[in-house]
Design brief:
The protein has 311 residues and is mainly alpha-helical. The protein is built from 13 helices and no strands. It folds into two domains: 59 residues, no CATH class; 217 residues, MetI-like (MetI-like fold, Orthogonal Bundle), CATH 1.10.3720.10. The chain is 81% helix and 0% strand. One of its GO terms (biological process) is transmembrane transport.
């Protein structure tokens, strides 16, 4: 297992290098001059030239890329033009809110997925199965920002159970503030993982070892928990990991709707403020988070299925 993890880490090196290349050149391929956009109408020729020098945009492209790599390797990720601070300090300040949101939504999604998928699989083609598939297919089609606004109106304004915005202070206050946004993300995640786990359970139920376990007189609950669920979870781990990677980027919308002080809302603020170094640094941070989640998914997949690490 340790060899497998080390090999996965080594494989991440070219991926991370490719991310820096894509981030650097795609941002510079966007139309418009960053210095002019930052200064707006108040910027004269001298101010624009000074801003280009400050951002290093007057240098050849290859030198700009080397400076970009230097900022990444030094850990500063550059210096924000708007805030006047190293990007990494602002990232570390906002990162906990995003990680809390992603982790909390993942827990809620898993708690919903396992019992509902089991119920749907056991009641295959009957009313409970049809109901679960119908409800979560509809939820998957609803845009997250619209669902978030609807839940705010219902559960925060009409029935004031949850706050409409903010992050809270302390564990219970934080969970209370994050429940609505995490629930919105969890519904989208569960819409995918329930279908995946249900299919996995139905495939495993037809296996010979399940038939043998039933023939030995094992109780249905024991058979489902010991033989069916662990083997059915393998495919769902990949779906959960892939969707969690998507959630990292999706926090931009949810954090904006619920006014959470996370990386997503900081990213939106930086775009409107045209803070070029901040946008560049946050893009790298989001990409690294996605890569780390994919690595964690691979490790979890290898733990669940020994054949993966043996290969």
């Amino acid at each position: 297992m340790l060899t497998y993890i080390l090999k996965r880490f080594v494989q991440l090196v070219p991926v991370l290098f490719g991310i820096t290349l894509a981030c650097f050149f795609l941002l510079r391929a966007l139309p418009g001059d960053p210095a002019t956009l930052l200064l707006g109408a108040r910027g004269g020729a001298e101010e624009i030239a000074a801003m280009k020098q400050r951002l290093g945009l007057d240098l050849p492209l290859w030198r700009q890329y080397l400076l970009f790599l230097h900022d990444i390797l030094s850990g500063s990720l550059g210096r924000s033009v708007v805030y006047g601070q190293p990007v990494i300090s602002l990232v570390l300040e906002r990162l906990p809110a995003t990680l809390w949101l992603v982790a909390y939504s993942t827990v809620i999604a898993v708690v919903m997925t396992i019992p509902l998928a089991l119920w749907s699989a056991v009641k295959r083609d009957r009313a409970p199965d049809i109901l679960v598939k119908l409800v979560f297919t509809v939820l998957l089609a609803i845009p997250s920002f619209w669902l978030g606004l609807v839940l705010v109106v219902i559960l925060a304004i009409w029935v004031p159970l949850f706050p409409t915005s903010g992050y809270g202070a302390g564990l219970f206050s934080r969970l209370h503030h994050l429940t609505l946004p995490a629930f919105v993300i969890a519904l989208a995640t569960a819409s995918l993982t329930i279908r995946s786990l249900r299919s996995g359970i139905l495939n495993v139920l037809g296996s010979d070892y399940v038939t043998t376990a039933r023939a030995k007189g094992n109780a249905t609950g024991r058979t489902m928990c010991v033989h069916v669920l662990p083997n059915a979870l393998i495919s769902s781990i990949s779906v959960l990991g892939a969707h969690t990677s998507w959630v990292i980027g999706g926090t931009v919308v949810i954090e904006t709707v619920f006014a959470l002080p996370g990386l997503g809302s900081l990213f939106v603020e930086s775009i409107f403020a045209r803070d070029y170094p901040m946008i560049q640094g946050l893009t790298i941070v989001f990409a690294v988070l996605v890569v780390l989640i994919n690595l964690a998914t691979d490790i979890a997949y290898a733990l669940a299925d020994p054949r993966i690490r043996l290969d």
